[in-house]
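Before going further, learn to read the protein records used in this course. A complete example follows; check for yourself that the lines match position by position.
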Amino acid sequence: MRAKTVLDRGSTLLAVTRLSRATALGEALHFFFYETPKVLLLLIGIVFLMGVIQTFFAPERTRALLAGRRLGLGNAMAASLGIVTPFCSCSAVPLFIGFVSAGVPLGVTFSFLIAAPMVNEVALALLLGLFGWKVAALYLGLGLAVAIAAGAIIGKLKMERYLEDWVRAIHLGEATAASGPVATWPERLATGRRHVREIVGRVWPYVLIGIGLGAAIHGYVPEDFMAAFMGRDVWWAVPAAVVLGVPMYTNAAGIVPIVEALIGKGAALGTTLAFMMSVIALSAPEMLILRKVLKWPLIATFIGVVATGILLVGYVFNLVL
């Protein structure tokens, strides 16, 4: 019901402009009007909730909970959590920020950030309905492998120094370390509101810029152009599909019908799914939002590690199916 309300609001705002969704500009504006309130409300809600939750747990306890006692367990837990959170890449960023703010290890947060948009229940349900259980199961296994491995690699690289200073202070517990007497509920709620002011106040312009870029691409990029080379049996088709997909932005529900259309026009399954993964896991708007939280070396490492995993997935699909 809430999604329908937001969708109706997007259509209502578009009606004010007297533009039709049949036009590229109208479709881009509708996308912007639909995504902006959804992402901003989610950002506020998640940051507030994580601020309140943090008053119950010291950062060290939270880190221990998700990091686990064995190598990769925290990454597997975070990636599995991503399956049941059907967020697009930009919508997953608020929870990523909340994890970092709570002191969760950086590599573990990246496993969630990758899995949430790429391997969620919406994507799996649509793939199951369109292509059958074998494709859905292989996508699930390989997608989780990418999320877990990429997060583990980033964690091993010890790149916390490339968090923005204000985020690193929270991550290390310097800004909100739990100490002293047990907080009361008014104090916990006040902490949540303070987190909203500090975090949302810093990142909201990047959210709007990112969604605006995604809206422009969503409205103007043609499907025929992409299908023209995705069906070619050449080694560079998969890398080209990944490079083409990165600047784009949509969620699993939006990209899977496009994937079906591309395959219907002759595109190879692995190449098309690699394109799909890059769109929903490595979107340019997501990078713009993350830039307020992460420094460029960490963003570049994130893109490189995940893109490498997606390339392998594309080649595996083309090889076995």
